[in-house]
C-alpha cells in the first residue's frame, strides 16, 4: 500500500462504526500504535478505537479528507480537512506518521488554528 493509500484508508476509519473499524485498524495500524493530538496521547489500537468512537459520536457525519502526503524514509506528513456531510470544512491540520511494515506505528496530529470570524 502506498503512503497515500494508507493515509486515505486510515482517515476513513474515523467515520466507521465499531464493527467495520476493527478490521481496518488491524490493516492500517501497528499493534503498538501510539496516537497524540492536542487532546492527549493514546497507546494501542483499543484506546485509539475508543477515541475514534467518541469522535464519531460528537461529529456525526464528519469525515477526514487527505489533501496531500509527503513521504520519505518511513516518515510521512499528511495534510487533511475535516468536513461535514455538506462538505463544509470544520477543521484543517497535519498529521505526522511513522510507517513500519506498511502500517502507521506512531501518529501525531496537529490542528490548524481556527479562523476567527471577520467583523466589519
Automatic annotation (TrEMBL):
Pfam hit, one: SnoaL_2
InterPro entries from the UniProt entry: NTF2-like_dom_sf, SnoaL-like
Ranges of residues in domain SnoaL-like: 23-104
Signal peptide: none
Name of this chain's protein: Nuclear transport factor 2 family protein
Taxonomic source organism: Rhizobium aouanii
Amino acid at each position: 500500500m502506498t503512503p497515500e493509500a494508507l493515509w486515505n484508508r486510515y482517515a476513513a476509519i474515523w467515520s466507521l462504526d465499531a464493527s467495520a473499524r476493527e478490521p481496518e485498524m488491524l490493516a492500517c495500524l501497528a499493534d503498538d500504535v501510539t496516537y497524540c493530538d492536542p487532546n492527549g496521547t493514546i497507546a494501542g489500537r483499543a484506546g485509539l478505537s475508543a477515541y475514534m468512537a467518541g469522535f464519531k459520536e460528537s461529529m456525526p457525519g464528519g469525515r477526514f479528507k487527505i489533501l496531500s502526503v509527503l513521504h520519505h524514509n518511513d516518515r510521512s506528513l499528511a495534510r487533511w480537512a475535516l468536513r461535514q456531510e455538506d462538505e463544509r470544512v470544520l477543521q484543517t491540520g497535519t498529521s505526522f506518521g511513522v510507517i513500519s511494515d506498511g502500517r502507521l506505528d506512531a501518529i501525531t496530529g496537529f490542528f490548524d488554528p481556527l479562523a476567527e470570524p471577520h467583523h466589519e
